[in-house]
Amino acid sequence: MSLRFQAINNLTGEITATSVPGLTKISAIFGENVFTLKTAREFLSDEAYKSLSASVKGNKKIERAVASHIANGIRSWAEAKGVSHFTHWFQPLTGTTAEKHDSFFTIKSDGTPIQEFDGAALIQQEPDASSFPSGGLRATFEARGYTAWDPSSPAFIMEIGTGKTLCIPTIYVSYTGESLDYKAPLLKALEALNKSAVEVANYFDKNVTKITATLGWEQEYFIIDEGLANARPDLVQCGRTVFGASPAKGQQLEDHYFGSIPERVYAFMRDYEEECYKLGIPLRTRHNEVAPAQFECAPIFEDVNIAVDHNVLMMDVMNRVAKNHKLRVLLHEKPFAGINGNGKHNNWSMATDTGVNLLAPGKTPKTNLMFLTFFVNTIKAVHDYADLLRASIASAANDHRLGANEAPPAIISVFIGEYLTKVLNDIETRVSDKFDEQDEAILKLDLHRSIPELLLDNTDRNRTSPFAFTGNKFEFRAVGSSANCANAMITLNTIVAETLKTFKKEVDEMIDKGDKKEIAIMHVIQKYIVESKKVLFEGDGYSEAWEKEAEKRGLPNIKTTPLALDAMVTDKAKHLFHSNNVYNHIELEARHEIELEKYIKKVQIEARIMGDLAINHIIPVAIKYQNILVANIKGLKDAGLPESAYKSQLEILKEISGHLQAIHSKTDEMVEARKIVNNMEHTRTKAIAYESQVKAPFFDEIRYNVDKLEHLVADEIWTLPKYREMLFLR
After folding, report:
1. pTM (2 decimals)?
2. Region of residue 96 (phi > 0: left; psi between -120 and 50: alpha; otherwise: beta)
């Protein structure tokens, strides 16, 4: 019996749940495995607590002597919970998290065994820097690298089975100081935004001393039975199905979206949510997504740094908990063809330390002017750096998703809704005329006359827009589901920081020339509206008309990752990131190299899996069915029946033979093409060639013929689980 039918036979529908029976209050367990400031108050001395609190809230440096006191307090807390080991938890450029566990146990010089965790171990560790992607920054013989504690993200305890490990969130840098992770540049980008945004916010409120970027991600994912997933080598190796005919029923009835959550999936959700709550991840929403077997969860907004940590942590938790339920989580951007892919919508805003959301319209002319300032500056940033935003979400997996089934296209545009479009048009026309200190009309602009107070409900949503304003935040919808949010957030926060910096310079120049502050602000806002209006688009992002219109407007439409990544290493990008102290030129070049290498390896793996499945699974099964047909035809012939009695069998046999020949020849051609590309030395050239000489000419054609065979070959001998089984059986 094939793995496919074994998996189907093993589907019992048995529900496994490990969550606490009768648990009703999330607040009772929320954050219980996190070393929060509230917990620190109990386990630290006054001096240590004040130092940690100042570091978390004000980015103050923690002295090493104090760090030892903090480390002892964290160890006491962790040991009380049964922890024996700790790790520096970091996010290298592999796309996953990394950890190396060390024990609190040590032996003193006199042989006495003790438990110890000192400040040096808390602050710094030394993982191998040559074994992680470095883009050429580190050679094999240059192994030294460092993880350094990030106090702004609290330590937590990870429970795996009966084991517990203390995790210290850290940045990861090379021996020579270059960042080798996502967190280090993210923290720098956030600081750049804070500095620029505070200076602009002080035009309106001198009490603002800190501005924090906030993020609320929406994580989409598929859940399928583990046995069915294990019977698909492509899912095991690539995270997506490279073959698979569309089932009779997919998502066309639209009956899955917001439907009743299947009981087995519901049990899984409850368990992973409980683990997340213990880790302080504030999950709020769960629901069925549009495609069958697709679901989504979303948390309450948090500071970007914490939100990014929580997202990658949650993905890890989901994968582990799913195994307890004999399920498999698919986070790939397009695990199944013909239905919705997975995105990770990044809902982004900015908040002041005085409690104001800078992207929420106010109720006074002053607060409305502040809203307009940050709103328009964000649009201008997207317009000026659309190519970098596209590069920030570029990957082999996301290339499969962008442009269809509710995923935005590769063209970066901004949707703001009809009400705000009218407001910007009004400002453009009113300010473009002569405007002096006597004309106070624009300063009395009451946005709530144009925008109803319930703006959140009156700004429509556009699922085809990659960057949409949704009431009090922007939603960056183009981010892929398996991606680390940090990559998009580094770029977004940096480009907004740079735009605000330029905005302040232009406003100050006008003030120095004698213009009133509010008038100067409105003139620069009007200028930015005019300069960035071509990036605004309210229509259907999937339409051919939009592609043509975007081309007329001069908006980039870069559909493949290798070309999209070019934006990372332009002079404009190098100046942007260097001037904001996010990346130096070497780090940027290295990241470009790493992303190209990732693309090459992903496409290479998919090509090899396609070849393996075609030669070792598909063709043998098709030949087996051919033999059955041949035997049937021969038997009918031998029985003396006319050709009309086996005409259908002959036609099927001929059709199968045609697809077999196409699969075999195209697979051979793909293998030869891959060999040629593998001999190319330049990484960018190789990446482009993998897309244009391996993926583009062969992937879809081989798949077409395999999927046709799936409809022709007898179901009982087809070895790979079919879409109808993976998507609907659980």
Report:
1. 0.93
2. beta
